[in-house]
Design goal:
By secondary structure, the protein is mainly β. The protein is built from one helix and 26 strands. The strands form seven sheets. A five-stranded antiparallel β-sheet has the order 1-2-26-25-24, with no helix packed on it. The chain has a four-stranded antiparallel β-sheet with strand order 3-4-5-6, with no helix packed on it.
């Protein structure tokens, strides 16, 4: 296990961020690893090779690695539900060369797999919501009326609360929206508007803040997000970094140096996970003082 000994601090407008630890929990024998996802209790970690051909699960207490799925490119959309189980989507080419996607649930306790959404053509996404998760399809969905969640489809942001859907376009002139998620308290939504930047809105689509060109945002808590920098070549010029960003747009701090080439951030349970361009997964703990 590698521990980065350097501690990074920043003081700005009475705010201090301290990186307490940054560790690499995965043995190098598993090769490059990407798409890291932590569960809410921070004792399990999902990951996949760069091609997303296999979805694997690391038990952070025992070090044991299990295979969740190895068929249908399951690594792209693997997610922990709020029940601790893994929800993922597979994609297979069928008649007329069309791609059909199906949703699955993997029981972390006993290793059992259950199909929860039959194959369908079009977008299918797994999203943590309510007491478990929602698998959203363009035709059919699983658990759709459970909790508050958000997702994007083309140039629209969808906000769903107990099955009631709001189809929104908060940022005019954007050709598409990406990476939407609801804050832990369920009162805000973050998303990326292509060609415009990262935004936070309320559940009705009212813009609360704009935070520039960030990608793959994830809620650290109800007031802060983690995201990676840059689009349109900006990250190539400045270096790929993970940032802590205040949801009101008033504060940002680089958690990683540009030479690390850090990507794919995700936060859960007060911890942050990300990987590097070389496929080295990290788990970071920070301390924020406002």
């Amino acid at each position: 296990m590698l521990v980065l000994l350097s501690v990074m601090c920043l003081v700005a407008e009475a705010q201090t961020v301290e990186v307490i630890s940054d560790t690499c929990p995965l043995d190098s024998i598993y090769g490059p690893a990407y798409y890291p996802q932590l569960n809410r209790t921070c004792d399990k970690l999902l990951f996949s090779p760069t091609e997303a051909t296999i979805l694997k699960l690391l038990d952070l207490k025992t070090g044991v690695v299990a295979t969740v799925a190895d068929d249908g490119l399951p690594g792209f959309d693997g997610r922990f539900g709020n029940d601790g189980n893994v929800y993922y989507v597979t994609a297979k080419r069928r008649q007329n060369n069309l791609i059909f996607r199906a949703g699955y649930r993997y029981n972390v306790e006993n290793g059992a797999t259950e199909q929860v959404l039959a194959p369908q053509h079009g977008q299918v996404l797994a999203v943590a919501a309510g007491k478990s998760a929602v698998v959203v399809g363009e035709r059919e969905s699983y658990n759709f009326k459970r909790g508050t969640f958000a997702f994007t489809r083309g140039a629209f942001l969808y906000v769903v609360k107990n099955g009631n859907v709001k189809k929104l376009q908060p940022v005019k002139g954007s050709v598409g929206y990406l990476w939407a998620s609801v804050s832990p308290c369920g009162d805000k939504v973050v998303f990326k508007a292509v060609g415009k930047g990262m935004y936070v809105v309320d559940l009705n689509g009212k813009i609360l803040s704009e935070m520039g060109y960030y990608m793959m945002p994830s809620w650290y808590d109800n007031d802060y997000l983690v995201a990676m920098n840059g689009t349109d070549g900006v990250q190539k010029r400045l270096g790929q970094q993970i940032y802590l960003v205040k949801a009101d747009g008033t504060f940002e701090y680089a958690l990683t140096p540009p030479e690390m080439s850090a990507v794919q951030p995700m936060a859960a349970g007060g911890k942050i996970t990300y990987t590097t361009g070389q496929g080295e997964i990290h788990i970071m703990e920070i301390k924020i003082k406002d």
